[in-house]
Amino acid sequence: MKGLIAMNPHPLLKLEGTLGREYAIKVVRKQLKKAEQSFFQVFLVDSSGSDSKQPVFEGLYSLGIEPYIDGWIDGHYYEDAEFRAAELNLSRTGLDSELFKKLGKILKTSWSFMVAYETFGKAGRTLLETSQSLNCGIPPIATPIGYLLFSTGRLKIKDWYFPEGGNEGMPKLEGIGAVDRRHAARMRKESAAELRLFLKKGACRDRELEAPARKRAAEVLKSIKY
């Protein structure tokens, strides 16, 4: 297809490798009708060679069509992994950040990274806290999922409570990529202003939600240096 970004091996296969000290990543990819798009699932493999019973991440991956359409990921994150003899929570062990950073590396800096924060299946603490935080008025970038998206290099996080057109699935957060330095600087400025206002005035009366959000906000401000 004209304009399709051809990559061999496919970028999704580059996700495979170690995760932490005890786990490995296994990717299952299915090519879709649109040549630039794939459905993929990320499973974990423990030290005994046992695959997780369910994926820890799944969704759509698009290579984009140059120069017209950027690529993107639109997916679902599941923090609980169950193996034959054990269970693992990625968020409690900090492996969620490592996983998201690996996903971010298969995206160009201008590409979007979208993750649903509501699901028809089992919602872990990360999704629940993200949804509750947004309802409480906490900035998207200071929520658990928003902060994970920021760690992938997305400088502004947008809440799609009603996905555009109504046909894009569950409510989600979009980590917006920077098309150039000017765009990156503008997003840093906008995110910094949003977070400083939050830190100054607060957002909600739920201390269990606001306290960790304030910590994440401070970390983002320290990182973007704006």
Please bin the fraction of helical residues: 25-40%
Question: How are strands sequenced across the largest beta sheet?
Answer: 1-2-3-4-5-8-10-9
- SS field, number of helical segments: 6
Please tell me the overall pLDDT: 91
Rg from alpha-carbon coordinates:
18 Å
Major sheet characteristics? 8 strands, mixed
Distance between the termini: 41 Å
Helix and strand sequence: EEEEEEEHHEHHEEHH
**Form type:** globular
Uncertain spans, ≥5 residues at pLDDT below 50?
1-6
| Overall number of domains | 2
Key terms:
226 residues; alpha+beta; 8-stranded mixed beta sheet; two-stranded antiparallel ribbon; 6 helices; 32% helix; globular; disordered N terminus
Description:
The chain has 226 residues and is α+β, with helices and mostly antiparallel strands. It has 2 domains: 1-108; 117-226, no CATH class. Helix content is 32%, strand content 24%. It has helices at 90-93, 95-105, 125-135, 144-150, 181-201, 207-224, and strands at residues 17-19, 23-31, 37-45, 57-62, 72-77, 80-82, 87-89, 112-116, 156-160, 172-176. The strands form 2 sheets. An 8-stranded mixed β-sheet has the order 1-2-3-4-5-8-10-9. Strands 6-7 form a two-stranded antiparallel sheet. β2 (23-31) and β3 (37-45) form a beta hairpin. α5 runs antiparallel to α6. The longest helix has 21 residues, at 181-201. The radius of gyration is 18 Å and the shape is globular.
